[in-house]
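ok so for the tutorial part 2 we go from a plain amino acid sequence to predicted structure tokens. step 1 is just haveing the sequence, like this:
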Amino acid sequence: MNALLTDPWFYAAAIPAVILVGLSKGGFGGAVGFVGVPLMALVMPPVQAAAILLPILVLMDMVSLWTWRGIFDRLTLATMLPGAVAGISLGWLTAALVTADMVRFIVGAVAVVFVARWVYQQFRHGSAYAARPNRLAAGFWGAVAGFTSFVAHVGGPPFQVYALPLRMDPKVLTGTSAIFFAVTNAVKLVPYFALGQFDTTNLTASAVLMPMAPLATLAGAWLVRRMRPEVFYPFTYATVAIIGLKLIWDGVIQMF
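step 2 — the prediction. this is what the tokens look like for a chain of 256 residues:
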């Protein structure tokens, strides 16, 4: 434990990771916060990085829920959350078979194709184009988000594959995302505990990093409240594309 907490490279990776995740939890940058685990994985095993981040994510979720209280889309949550719980359960059952690197590659590929599809729709339908709610699609992408969130904390891109095309008000989208991931992260505590990931070393590291979490989350919320939809959506899609390419790169490098 002492070796980890006195390692300057741990802080060099973990502090930026927590700040980026916090800004994302506040709603700023969409999927940009999901570089947290890959960034920390530069200096420690990915599973340990995910375990250290999970309690911090739960704290950030509490701040997000308070910040965006009463602002959410009920239908999106009702149709996506059951799939998310099923996806987490599937991730738990297949944890020994599916590596985080495989998940990163798949999620990255989905994210890049998703953004390419959005660019095509902008040229074909214009920037005002909005998809209609679809219960089957919501359940499917909710399950994918739950699965990828359990394995590597990268549930954001699959969630946005379904939610972004609905073109909700940015504040409603952020509030809906806050509730969705608060529930999924709370559910994930059970399998992570069962897998023995919450040992003294990881929990102590989480506690050391936690003071930054609320400030970064509130900063993200402050920025989102001041962004117009015509700025928010292109910015968010751009971050999804960048993170998607990074996930593909990380997955290919580690698998091959």
